[in-house]
């Protein structure tokens, strides 16, 4: 894309102006558009400063450039858009990077708005645990506590998990949060620092639309009382790795929810609706949040199938990222103040995007020509969808599978396969088609 420039007349020291522009670029997250700053030759007193930006349309000024200029300090006379040949004689040859070379934008590592952003490798290796007959009760108490509190910071979630004996540390608490998100019980804020319990909902079974299961806020004993009133039943999650599923016959008129809250229930199974409206993988990739302002890290590691491997070939130079496409984890700082960031890098498109870790791993394998496959087998009047754990789907697609039945996947440690129960064949076909996954059907 051709680089263009907008110039504005400013006053003050060059360092102050540069700091102001960098802070505004970081604040608006537009370092991928507004990339460089130049000063007028012999800049002092009153002078022009030039913002370099890239856009596929010559003569077009992106909205991000206007956002950077929208401050009284940058409200002087403007020129542009201009090309380099028009202003070459006016420029000081020094070029300044607007993103700054010493910062990674703040990104929480425990979760993101559509799922989990943090690096789950340690959790994956230790996710399979022996069945514990008391674990379901602990998860039920955790959900009751979350329902009573309503919302809080990530630290409070970790403390609750540890106090109630659900997890031993913060790393495994992240896996618990992911499971509760898959079940629709909890959501996180956009900045990923706080959590909120979801409203009480009765979700229709995808295979048995006259029956449903509870999702969201569930005070202690309320779910069991509601289940008892409407021919319901309670069952544990596979391996006891989540709150119990409370299933019931859906009443003609919905009862009053806990704390006077209204209970919602869709006319159609939510999973079937989602299976029809979710984007294909390209659309999902376009929805991921770009990583901006990233320069050469201290340590770069690339996921090589089973583990991260350090790779010095990833670096930033002359306005481009170098290295192979793939799933990366970069590290900066020392042991006391260390920052890590996980993202997928597309070398051809020069794009860095972040999202849930399983989703980025799935994307990386697909781009490497390893799309994986799925098996649907008829069982119990519906079907079971079987996937390889190493090819787990992105969060938004896996949540659709879980919301078909209200059950987390059953993991077989011997075969390392995941089984999603009560999945209709129509939903399985729609989901695999969107993800480019081959589906084998066993009737």
Task: Characterise the protein shown here.
The chain has 443 residues and is α+β, with helices and mostly antiparallel strands. It has 4 domains: 3-97, NusG, N-terminal domain (Alpha-Beta Plaits), CATH 3.30.70; 103-267, no CATH class; 289-354, no CATH class; 371-442, Translation Initiation Factor Eif1. It contains 13 helices and 25 strands. Strands 13-20-19-18-14-15 form a 6-stranded antiparallel sheet. A 5-stranded antiparallel sheet has the order 4-1-3-2-5. A 5-stranded mixed sheet has the order 23-24-22-21-25, with helices on one face. Strand 2 and strand 3 form a beta hairpin. The radius of gyration is 26 Å and the shape is elongated. Residues 100-118 have low confidence and may be disordered.
Strand arrangement across the biggest beta sheet: 13-20-19-18-14-15
Mean pLDDT: 84
Q: How would you characterize the largest beta sheet?
A: 6 strands, antiparallel
| Tally of individual domains | 4
Radius of gyration from CA coordinates:
26 Å
Helix count from the secondary structure assignment? 13
Please mark out the parts with pLDDT under 50 across 5 or more consecutive residues, or reply none.
100-118
Strand content: 25-35%
Helix content: 25-40%
Oligomer: single chain
Shape: elongated
Give the terminus-to-terminus CA distance.
52 Å
Q: Which structural traits does this protein have?
A:
Alpha-Beta Plaits; alpha+beta; five-stranded antiparallel sheet; 443 residues; elongated; 13 helices; single chain
């Amino acid at each position: 894309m051709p680089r263009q420039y907008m110039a504005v007349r400013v006053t003050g020291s060059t360092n102050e102006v540069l700091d102001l522009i960098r802070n505004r670029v970081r604040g608006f997250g537009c370092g991928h558009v507004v990339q460089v700053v130049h000063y007028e030759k012999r800049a002092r007193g009153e002078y022009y400063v030039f913002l370099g930006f890239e856009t596929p349309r010559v003569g077009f000024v992106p909205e991000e450039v206007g956002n950077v200029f929208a401050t009284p300090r940058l409200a002087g006379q403007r020129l542009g858009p201009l090309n380099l040949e028009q202003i070459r004689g006016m420029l000081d040859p020094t070029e300044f990077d607007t993103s700054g070379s010493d910062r990674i934008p703040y990104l929480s590592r425990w979760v993101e708005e559509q799922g989990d952003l943090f690096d789950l490798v340690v959790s994956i290796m230790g996710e399979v645990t022996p069945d514990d007959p008391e674990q379901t009760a602990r998860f039920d108490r955790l959900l009751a506590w979350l329902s009573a509190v309503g919302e809080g910071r990530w630290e409070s979630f970790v403390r609750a998990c540890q106090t109630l004996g659900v997890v031993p540390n913060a790393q495994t608490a992240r896996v618990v949060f992911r499971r509760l998100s898959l079940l629709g019980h909890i959501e996180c804020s956009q900045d990923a620092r706080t959590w909120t319990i979801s409203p009480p909902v009765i979700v229709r079974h995808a295979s048995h639309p006259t029956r449903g299961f509870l999702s969201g806020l569930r005070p202690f004993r309320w779910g069991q009382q509601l289940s008892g009133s409407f021919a319901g039943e309670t069952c544990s999650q596979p391996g006891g790795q989540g709150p119990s599923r409370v299933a019931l016959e859906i009443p003609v008129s919905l009862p009053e929810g806990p704390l006077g809250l209204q209970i919602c229930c869709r006319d159609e199974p939510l999973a079937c609706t989602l299976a029809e409206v979710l984007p294909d993988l390209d659309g999902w990739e376009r929805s991921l949040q770009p990583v901006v302002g990233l320069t050469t890290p201290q340590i770069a590691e690339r996921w090589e199938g089973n583990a991260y491997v350090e790779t010095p070939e990833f670096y930033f130079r002359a306005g481009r990222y170098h290295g192979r496409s793939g799933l990366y984890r970069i590290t900066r700082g020392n042991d006391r103040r260390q920052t890590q960031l996980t993202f997928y890098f597309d070398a051809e498109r020069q794009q860095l995007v972040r999202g849930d870790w399983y989703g980025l791993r799935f994307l990386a394998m697909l781009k490497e020509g390893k799309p994986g496959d799925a098996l649907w087998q008829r069982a119990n009047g519906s079907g079971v969808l079987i996937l390889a754990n190493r090819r787990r789907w992105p969060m938004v697609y896996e949540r659709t599978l879980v919301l078909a039945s209200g059950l987390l996947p059953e993991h077989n440690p011997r075969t390392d396969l995941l089984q999603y129960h009560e999945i209709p064949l129509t939903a399985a076909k729609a989901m695999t088609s969107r993800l480019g996954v081959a589906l084998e059907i066993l009737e």
